Amino acid sequence: MFKKTKSIVSIIYSFIKFLLIKLIRPKFSFCAVERFSPGTMINIHRGGAMKLGRKVRAHSGVRLSVTPHGIMEIGDNTAFNYNCILVARQHISIGSDVTFGPNVIVYDHDHDFRGTELMNGEKYECDDIIIGNNVWIGANAIILKGSVIGDNAVIAAGTVVRGSVDANCVAYNKKELITKTYEKNA
What we know:
There is one protein chain. This protein has one helix and 22 strands. By secondary structure, the chain is mostly beta strands. It has a single domain, classed as Hexapeptide repeat proteins (UDP N-Acetylglucosamine Acyltransferase, domain 1, 3 Solenoid), CATH 2.160.10.10. The model has no long low-confidence stretch (mean pLDDT 90).
């Protein structure tokens, strides 16, 4: 009973919060039934656009941010676990039925470290991110600019993705644990 009540309160809270955001940022669209934790942050800068599909869910600590001229599209029945961060400077498109594990980071940009404005944070290199339908992204994964993830893909925990992941694939980084014995000084 408590869980159902908590869900209803979360849906009502999200609806009111989203109505207020819509008043300030007209390029924000959502469906009536969204379940976002009160600890979720949505930041849409003037000129940015965000579109949420039906039944999108987000736990505490999730941050969705769209900068001016950026676009973020999130499909139906997509779920964000705790502390996910998504920042769109250009375009992030997420399909339907996508599940994000905790602490997933998605950035469609990199700092242009060659630029003279690096310290001011003014120079970025951007490229779209496209995540297909029915994708599972494991805990602590990082999705970088220019990534395209096909339908039904699984991104293993801790994986850094930059580039293409085919549909119906499991993607992981091959990691090697190296240990070295040492002698203790007496």
